Amino acid sequence: MDKVYDGNVKVWQQIGEDAILAKGFGVTLVSRYFIRPTDKTEQEYHFVIGKEGVTIFALTTHGKVVLKEEFKQGTARICLECASAIIKKNENYLVTAARELQEETGFKATTLIPVPGRFVFGERKLPFGYRLVIATGCYQEGLPTPDEGEASFNVYLANPEEFWRAVDEEKIIACQTIHAASYAAAIGLIPGPR
Questions:
Q1: What element of type H or E holds 43?
Q2: Rounded to two decimals, what is the model's pTM?
Q3: 59, 184 Cβ separation under 8 angstroms
Q4: CA-to-CA dists, residue 137 to 50, 57, 66, 141, 152, angstroms
Q5: Strand 53-60 to strand 126-140: parallel, antiparallel, or no bridges (unpaired)?
Q6: How many CB atoms lie within 10 A of CB 3?
Q7: Containing H/E element for 44?
Q8: Weakly modelled stretches of the chain, pLDDT under 50
Q9: What percent of the chain has pLDDT over 90?
């Protein structure tokens, strides 16, 4: 890469340990203090820390996208999204992806394509991340097996045009789902939005 501007970026020094402000549902709200290098002032920042997850963009043998529909508390509405899960400690995310796709949708993948990189929701406020996997050649092998206590959900099959229309209509708003679909379109597995 060619640097076109040098603003003398420096690492900020953290003061002390994270202060836990709240904890629950797999996430922790923390406060961190830093010394800003430019003027040596103390700055407080708040972050939501969570566990790493994986989102699985699944395509059937007939080119349909496998989607879940369920109520999402954060948006207070029913949304469509891809299957996703928290990655278990010491488990490869591809293993998590294969298992969770089958448990959450009843579909099994022939091939798993890892999307390069690890992604964070927002490096300033939401520094925990997720992985993306494209599952191809998916076929139904039974019904979903929800975890005990898991909320109710529906499973849909959508052709790519219906998928992108749902994005336009804001029925699909999860960044991981849209990110995975965009990658699938970029590598030619589905057509992109029109």
A1: strand 42-50
A2: 0.85
A3: yes
A4: 31, 11, 11, 12, 26
A5: parallel
A6: 6
A7: strand 42-50
A8: none
A9: 76
